[in-house]
Design goal:
Layout (H helix, E strand, L loop, with lengths): L8 E12 L5 H6 L1 E11 L4 H4 L8 H14 L5 H15 L5 E8 L11 E8 L5 E2 L2 E2 L1
Antiparallel strand pairs: 1-2, 2-3, 3-4, 5-6
Length: 137
Amino acid sequence: MKILSDYPDRICLEGMSFYGYTGFFDFEKQRGQTFVVDLVLCFSENRAVVTDDLTDTVHYGEVFAVVKEIVETGKCNLIEHLAGKILSAVLDKFPLIQAAEAVVSKPDAPVEGVFESMSVRIFRERKPNRKVDGREI
């Protein structure tokens, strides 16, 4: 299994903020709260670096829309599960992405004390030797 640093080319979507209803407690599911998502999309080689063609990369506006839909409409108990749903959807919908890491943060987590946020960091990768548009990647 590779790790994030094994992928030289990355697209980063940082500090995406959404209002959602994920949480263990009923009041979190009813009132909702802000979630901040960072997403790193990994490639062994992003062809768009050479071609300057959007079809050779991933449209990050479309990725943003997928993440927004999942966070704002999902009602998970745990941010771990929410992060997993985000990664599954992104890997399913964007076949050029070879691996991805999601960080889901709850700045207003129901915890007594002083903190910036509570978060989880999940990394997933595809199985190697896949074909996209007839090319092996």
